[in-house]
Amino acid sequence: MLTKKTEKRTMPKDFQELVQRIKRSETFDQESLRSEISDQISALMECQGLNKAELAKRLNTSRSYVTKILQGNANFTLDSLVQIARALGCNFRPVFAPTNVWNQIGAKEFSATAKMAGASETYNAPTLIETKTKINASRLRQPST
After folding, report:
1. CA-to-CA distance for 121 and 6, rounded, in angstroms?
2. Which of 116, 119, 45 is nearest to 84 (CA)?
3. Per-residue model confidence as pLDDT tens digits over 1-36
4. What span, in angstroms and rounded, lies between the C-alpha atoms of 128 and 31?
5. Above 60 in pLDDT, residue 121?
6. Cα separation of 108 and 121, whole Å?
7. How far is CA 60 from the centre of its chain?
8. What is the DSSP string of the chain?
9. How much is the pLDDT for 64?
């Protein structure tokens, strides 16, 4: 007997449909964000010449936890993100962006790895002001309905 849950789930017609379905999932967003945060932490550590042991000491935690953070396996809380940011001499500020704006701008512009290509000397991830400016500029380009 089919339940409502079973009826709603259909097999994807092709690989592209499967990929699109995965990309629309909440789990995909969570894993992508976890990975991006890990990439930013790694980039900051590299720019500061900081190794895992030193970050662990600053966080008053184990080196294995830092490895877990850098592999994207840590389930971050706001408290832990603030603690990590402070240990790296930074502030942590989340940014909410409407999905249509995010898709227009492209997540790559906000990516630490995109900004850090070539292992530059300084960390160049966008600031909150740059982010707001890009979002506002993108809204101005949206056609009115």
Report:
1. 52
2. 45
3. 555 555 566 777 788 887 788 778 888 888 888 998
4. 22
5. no
6. 20
7. 24
8. ---HHHHH----SSHHHHHHHHHTSHHHHHHHHHHHHHHHHHHHHHHHT--HHHHHHHHTS-HHHHHHHHTT-----HHHHHHHHHHTT---------HHHHHHH-GGGG-HHHHTTT--SS--PPPHHHHHHHHHHHHHHSPP-
9. 95
User: 102 versus 59: which is more confidently predicted?
Assistant: 59
Binning pLDDT at 50, 70 and 90, where does residue 97 land? Answer: confident
Inter-axis angle of helices 52-59 and 63-70, to 10 degrees? Answer: 110
What does the buried/exposed string (b/e) look like for 115-131 if buried means 16 or more CB atoms within 10 Å of the residue's CB? bbeeeeeebebbeeeeb
Integer Cα distance of 44 and 112 in angstroms: 9
pLDDT one-digit tens code per residue, 37-84 = 999 999 999 999 999 999 999 999 999 999 999 999 998 899 999 999
